[in-house]
Amino acid sequence: MMIYYYVLFMIFSTNLIVFASPGDNHYLYRACLNHCQQMNCSTPLGFQEFQAKQPFSNSILRWSCSDECAYECMWKTVDHMQEKGQPVVQFHGKWPFARFLGIQEPASTFFSILNLLSNYLFGYKVLRRNLRFGIHPLYSMWMIFCLISMNAWIWSTIFHTRDKPLTETFDYIAAISLVFAQFICCIIRVGYRTQFMHLAQLASLFVFGFFLYHAYYLLFIHMDFGYNMTVNIVVGLLNVICWLVWGAYSYISGKTYVWRCMLSVLLTMIFVAFELADFPPIAWTIDAHSIWHFSTIFLPILWYHFVVDDSRYLLLHTR
């Protein structure tokens, strides 16, 4: 599993209705939303009728009365745009998605679950089956990295199931923790059993400390999207450069198994192009972001195969 979070385009949502995207400012959407909220959310009788009609799946996933109004009015506006031959636009920073059993973005949710399973089956299970604690070098490091990866996909699943301020905040932090974790792994691996080992440890502590500060800043001080994106890009690029340069040097030195490491990095860079694309969801379900999640499902096979081979190499050449 490689760096999946170089560029994050998630919008920090609130429970309040903010008119920021073209769809939000459409006259039909605003009129519909105002009428729906007055009829269903502003009076005890209207709210009681809303609760009686709301499906259980929507209720359990915390779709409020205002949320339901926004969802229904969004689709009325989309239908109107299509009837008039107008292009579909975004609402509240997102394309229209057809929810399924209350799940806000079904495709991204499903692919996030598959990524979680992939990291568990081809990561955690493979490491436990092929490596041993106290015997194979860097075993603990790779197990921690695998757990961080699975945690990132857990929060990705939760966030795409229901986009709320809390779920989005933790998805941000879990995502960037994966970027930092892999960069730290690269620093430690490059310096392992060299004269620069102590320097690598200090650099790793510095990077880890910066991550803690970054997470604290996003969580408790200010959710600054530009700053967070900058950090993701800088650390992600450093990570790519670190692994590719080390991989190329190692391959030339005879460690031919590192081709899986380099291929994982290169494929990740190619797959990021899906995230940069932007188009209305196919069948109101598959968008560029979900395609990106789908493309990363199989990368753990390559990555953890490299980890096992590298650990065996280090064990074989233990001095």
Give Rg in angstroms.
23 Å
Q: Overall mean pLDDT score?
A: 90
Q: Give the helix tally.
A: 12
Tell me the helix content: 55-70%
**How much strand content do the residues show?**
under 5%
**Helix-strand string:** HHHHHHHHHHHH
Secondary structure tally: strands: 0
The coarse overall form would be elongated
Low-pLDDT runs of 5+ residues are 2-19
What does this structure look like?
With 319 residues, the chain is an all-alpha fold. Helices cover 69% and strands 0% of the residues. It has twelve helices and no strands. The protein has helices at residues 27-40, 44-53, 56-60, 65-83, 106-130, 139-161, 165-191, 197-221, 225-252, 259-276, 288-295, 299-316. The longest helix is centred in the C-terminal third of the chain and has 28 residues, at 225-252. The protein is elongated. Residues 2-19 have low confidence and may be disordered.
